[in-house]
Design brief:
This protein is mostly beta strands. It is built from 1 helix and 8 strands. It has one helix at 13-19, and strands spanning 27-29, 34-36, 52-53, 61-69, 83-90, 97-101, 115-122, 129-135. A 5-stranded antiparallel sheet has the order 6-5-4-7-8, with no helix packed on it. Strands 2-1-3 form a 3-stranded antiparallel sheet, with no helix packed on it.
Length: 137
């Protein structure tokens, strides 16, 4: 499935740079001891900008929910319809969910509650790697 190529900005650049090195990082506020995703310029809770860090986290998680896309306005995704879009609970970051594709799993065959692990896929337009998750046997 062709992936859309994100264009990093100054806020999320550390996330995308880490992906290019097959590493998953999630923004973390050391003042509040909490993760946040998607990243922001300041902490959601204390509004601090000075205490934001980018620790590497495990890419393991659990499938919380999913949907199947049958019709997309995005031309590069249309050849692969229908496809799954999943919500992943990250094991290392309680309360953090990520939305992704689930390559290797047939549409509507997503096992809710299954363990998953991150993989990094290269996008065709820019070569930017993006995180996706696959079911762990």
């Amino acid at each position: 499935m062709p992936r859309q190529s994100p264009v990093p900005d100054e806020v999320d650049k550390p996330f995308w740079d880490a992906c290019n090195h097959d590493r998953l990082v999630i923004q973390y506020c050391s003042a509040c001891d909490r993760y946040q995703h998607p990243p922001e310029r300041t902490c959601y809770q204390c509004r601090s900008a000075a205490n934001l860090e980018w620790p590497e986290v495990s890419g393991r998680g659990t499938i919380y929910s999913y949907g199947v896309v049958h019709d997309s306005p995005i031309l590069s995704l249309q050849p692969d319809m229908p496809y799954n879009v999943v919500v992943i609970d990250l094991d290392a970051c309680p309360g953090i969910n990520v939305v992704s594709h689930l390559p290797g799993t047939a549409p509507d065959a997503v096992p809710i509650g299954a363990a998953v692990d991150v993989v990094f896929e290269v996008t065709p337009a820019t070569g930017q790697k993006v995180p996706e998750w696959q079911v762990v046997d």
